[in-house]
Specification:
It contains four helices and eight strands; from the N terminus they run ααβββββαββαβ. With 149 residues, the protein is of the alpha+beta class. The protein has one domain: Dam replacing family, catalytic PD-(D/E)XK domain (PvuII Endonuclease, Chain A), CATH 3.40.210.30.
């Protein structure tokens, strides 16, 4: 298959996935896999997607806990978490799930950090004016490994 044909195939595949409502970004796939894992694993809270547009919250538990879900695939840090403009330290969620995907986007691991663990592990991104968590043993040790292949 030529490079041009491969690009056309990718474009048509993406269009079909969007038409069907299938996640086609690393972040969306990570959210989907994490929520599915929590739903199917006894002892873990049952999560559901938060309403679209909810700031910094991707899932909710049945008891009302807010979960932010950040996915790492090839990088070494999570996506950004934007603080409240007037209060940089205001609590935005109860838990953050850090999802690690393999190169083929299969689930590799899930780490859960409470808000206080997140506060201790977070770093400030000056360019984005937001928080992130480095994906390394030292920072992840602040949380709990919920899943690992």
């Amino acid at each position: 298959m030529s490079d041009k044909d491969l690009l056309l195939l990718r474009a048509s595949l993406r269009a079909e996935m969007r038409k069907r409502g299938i996640a086609d970004s690393v972040g969306a796939v990570g959210e989907q896999l994490a929520i599915e894992h929590f739903r199917q694993t006894p002892g873990l809270p049952k999560l559901q997607l938060a309403p679209r547009g909810t700031k910094n919250v991707d899932a909710l538990s049945r008891n009302g806990d807010r979960y932010s879900i950040k996915t790492v695939c090839e990088g070494s840090k999570t996506g950004t978490i934007y603080p409240e403009p007037d209060d940089r330290d205001k609590q935005l969620f109860e838990h953050i799930l850090i999802v690690k995907l393999a190169e083929d986007w299969s689930l590799e691991s899930i780490y859960q950090l409470s808000w206080s663990a997140f506060v201790n592990a977070r770093s400030w991104d000056k360019r984005m004016n937001a928080w992130y968590v480095a994906f390394n043993k030292q920072k992840l040790a602040a949380g709990v490994e919920v899943f690992r292949v």
